[in-house]
Design a protein that fits this description.
2 copies of one chain form a homodimer. The first copy, chain A, has one domain: 3-Layer(aba) Sandwich (NADH Oxidase), CATH 3.40.109. The first copy, chain A, is 36% helix and 18% strand. Chain A has a 4-stranded antiparallel β-sheet with strand order 1-2-4-3.
Chain lengths: 171, 171
């Protein structure tokens, strides 16, 4: 599949089979994140991989508990505020990093759901997991072998996303 | 090339050949951005494509003027604050959208550089381009046919990006 096909066929996977994701696969997923672009190449992303009881206790901190419980593993993605040089740009780098991982996950027949709602409980989770000071939780990626692959989500039309320049600078 | 290879071989391209990027290619690049994930699927990204004089005047607003001038086209990526539901998450969605476009650009033999430094002149540029109120410029993607493909940038080791859980929750 070409890159555009990969991007267009990626779905948020919310139901998983009871099949393990191997350590080798997790390493390759994190490798995809690691090679993402960031401003001044500061690589502000940090990762924590959780499974079993440590994963499942997170389910108590989100309305999407069934996704967390049903997944084989979760990857928590943190912004290292100590490495941060520009908060907005660092958040965009984290987003790029998450998308790299989601695309790679999809490319090898696995599935994932990017959960943001759990950030409402960021302080509690960072305390319970004894996250080092300076690391700010930005995303949770729940992943596993897809049990149900949903239809494509809706997207706005390209013409409605395009802004035309209205300027006296002549084109 | 597989998805991990694509992610790992993408480079920031700063020197371009004098060859045009077709409208069809631009449309496919924006299509890659359009199919990115966003929180509550709010699709907060908006795009403006500039070339010629309109592109080149932007070169005056960045220290990376040669990249802007040498590129065939630039894509400005905006956050629509009117569609924003959570600023941090929306910025991550914009980052995911940019990465989708960068990966697609790379996959079809084109090259791009994600410029953030130009945000220092955000207010001036938004005024000069008469950007509608509520749209906030977040990124500039300069693109074209690569003239020089740099070696891989450095990345931290995976072991230094991994945070181990230290918690009383038993794994």
């Amino acid at each position: 599949m070409d890159a555009l096909g990969l991007i267009k066929t990626r779905r948020a996977i919310r139901r998983f089979k009871k099949e393990p994701v191997s350590d080798k696969q997790i390493e390759a997923i994190l490798e995809a994140g690691r090679w993402s672009p960031s401003g001044i190449n500061n690589q502000p992303w940090r990762f924590m991989v959780l499974d079993g009881v440590r994963k499942n206790f997170l389910a108590e901190y989100t309305v999407y508990s069934s996704i967390v419980r049903g997944s084989d593993k979760v990857i928590l993605v943190f912004l290292d505020r100590g490495e941060s040089y520009h908060y907005e740009k660092d958040l965009m780098a984290i987003g790029a990093c998450v998308q790299s991982m989601l695309l790679y996950i999809h490319s090898c027949g696995l599935g994932a759901c990017w959960l943001g709602e759990i950030l409402n409980k960021r302080a509690e989770i960072e305390k319970l997991l004894a996250i080092p000071k300076g690391l700010e939780m930005e995303a949770l990626i729940a992943l596993g072998k897809p049990a149900i692959i949903p239809k494509a989500g809706k997207r706005m039309l390209l013409k409605d996303l395009l802004v035309r320049p209205k300027t006296k600078v002549k084109g």
